[in-house]
Amino acid sequence: MAVYKILIILIFNCLTVYASKQVTESVNALLPEDGRLNFTQLAIKYGHPAIEYEVITEDGYILKLFHIPGTKGRPVLLMHGIADSADTWIIRGNLSLAVSLANSGYDLWIGNIRGNRYSRHHVSLNPDEDDAFWNFSFHENGFYDLPAIIDTILNKTGADMLNAIAHSQGNTLFYVLCSTRPEYNSKINVMMALAPICYLQNVPPPLSILIQLSPSLYKLLSDFDINEIGNHNSLLNTFEKIICTRPKIGYAICIESIVFPIIGYDNEELKPDFVPVLVGHFPTSASTKGLYHFAQVGLRKTFAQFDYGNAGNLEKYNSTLPPVYDLNLVTTKIVLYVGLNDCISTIADVAILRSQLRNVVRYIVSPRLECNHLDHVWGEHMNNYLFPYIYDVLKSYK
Fold it and tell me: Given 145, 342, 349, 375, which residue is catalytic?
């Protein structure tokens, strides 16, 4: 029992205690330039200076929205996945989707959801002091963040609709938005879902085991008032940068032993030389409630709002069960792009999603058999096996 308590205290410190500024700067100095630069700096480096906008949601969160101006077609919105940020679309440099689309002249808008490194602001709440700041999941991301981003883009450009490309949780937000605020279907011309996430009942171990353990894990974190994980300045992220940037052993520990078992093994697309860049940007802050909400989806085999338990649900929803998202209300055109080796967005779970969506205009299986959950954004050769499909979709649904 004493060892257990010591372990809990160590985990608590790693998640919640910040490394000193001196330590953080020293560790960041170990990273290559692209691992240290932020989005706007990377955009300048790769030839496409970005404009920054602040977007304020209905419930007071202040989000950072990046704009790389272009003149081709409708505005294109890129939305990242969980514990991620706008950086994910540009950290591959000239091989990244953001740079490729910008080179082709598209008008790019790159969003950030509440809580990540660019959106840790609120009109009244302090993310470092107020637990209420972290009281959100993908529901609030879809119900508040996404519509605020979309409205800002349409207001700034004068366009009546936009195109969207979303990875993982990024496309979950569109299912939430379009089912709870159906009027937004008419503002989205087409949404291309990379690694679609809506159901998680067919994921393999070790993720399936984590899902089963999630109620106990979430309670444990809540008991220690841990509402945020992945903070860029936390001891955990500092250790991650120190360990994962070590030649050979870092790749073996961080990628082959931790990342690949969860997302699917593909060492041809995520090689050791990219890891020092990657750990400078990922993970970024996410709410523990958001992670647990996804686990609930897997446990209950239902795409529904957050489950607070019978009493909590009665108070929140006037029902003992949380409301189920009605995917029949999602009428915007959707393209599903899946990987056969994706251990999070599995073929079986995407099939359930596909059967419930009314307007899936294309279903694409990656021609790369080893394509995993994160190859869509970080894969070294995605310009060969993904980009052609993206350009064809943008051209076909103008």
Answer: 342
Query: Which of 19-23, 161-165, 246-250, 317-321 shows the lowest mean pLDDT across its residues?
Result: 19-23
Please confirm, yes or no, whether 373 is among the known catalytic residues: yes
3-class SS at 304?
Answer: strand
Catalytic, 342? Answer yes
Superfamily the domain 2-396 falls into = Alpha/Beta hydrolase fold, catalytic domain (3.40.50.1820)
Contact 37, 10 (CB under 8 A): no
**Size of the chain, expressed as the number of residues it contains:** 398
**Is 281 considered catalytic here?**
no
| Ranges of each domain in the chain | 2-396
Single out the residue of 228, 274, 52 nearest to residue 156, CA to CA.
Answer: 52
In tens, the pLDDT along 259-306 reads 999 999 999 999 999 999 999 999 999 999 999 999 999 999 999 999
CB 74 within 8 A of CB 398: yes
* pTM, to two decimals: 0.94
Candidate list 67, 122, 167, 373, residue with the active-site label: 373
Neighbours of 46 (CB within 10 A): 20
Query: How many Cα atoms are found within 13 Å in the side-chain-facing hemisphere of 367?
Result: 9
Structure confidence at residue 9 (pLDDT)? 47
Give 30's contacts (C-beta < 8 A, 6+ positions apart). 241, 242, 245, 276
Q: Does the N-terminal peptide bond of residue 204 adopt cis geometry, omega within 30 degrees of 0?
A: no
Catalytic residue (choose from 168, 179, 345, 366):
168
In degrees, rounded to 5, the angle at the alpha carbon of residue 368 between the alpha carbons of residues 362 and 372 is 85
